[in-house]
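We examine the record.

___
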Amino acid sequence: MFETRFAVPGRIAVSNRAAAVWQTATLTEVRRETPHAATFRFAVPAWAGHLPGQHLMLRLTAEDGYTAQRHYSLASAPDASGHIELTLDHVPGGEVSGWFHTVAKPGDRVEVRGPLSGFFAWPGDRPALLIGAGSGVVPLMSMIRHHRARQLDVPLRLLVSARGPEELIYAREYGPETTPVFTRSAPEGLPVGRLDASHLEPLFTAGTPWEAYVCGSNAFAEHASRLLVDAGQPVDRIRIERYG
């Protein structure tokens, strides 16, 4: 089997061969992010590492042998801790997300396989303009955490859209690199409205050669990518990950 490897700055190389193997992941911590989203931290001792923006496959197996598999973006930065984090919305009627939000507790075990897909990955070697909505911010937070952990000096900016402050995932972690956009309600002094050209304009005045990463619903991804093109972003330097 042919094996490829790609390196994370300051981190071990990641093997595609390792990504094909199912591993046991033990839930160690649950952190509430919003009324409908929570972060789940897992111990995965043999995790080979990942690039910010990658995802994994997660598998649950019931006592009767029934299995359910889902793809989830990695929220954690690459490090050597043997832990990874996923942030999951509680999807109404969701088979897997429902189990995590209503049943899962520290000590429970699941299976994971990854990391998967390098298309949406950011190695940390080029300016990154991140645009996300709702839980679409999850892979983008992996990039922000990596940028901070490695103290990278490459420019990085995040535009994150949420219905209101209570729905803003990772609200406590954002710094000066982040501009929140609230579509239904906002803290006093901040406008309410959709992401538009005025949010992008200041980021293009300096001529920074951005690599753009867009993640969100189908409708949001289409809207954000059109705004980027109108702002002058080359189409071949827009990476899109969508859901729904």
Remarks:
- The mean pLDDT is 92.
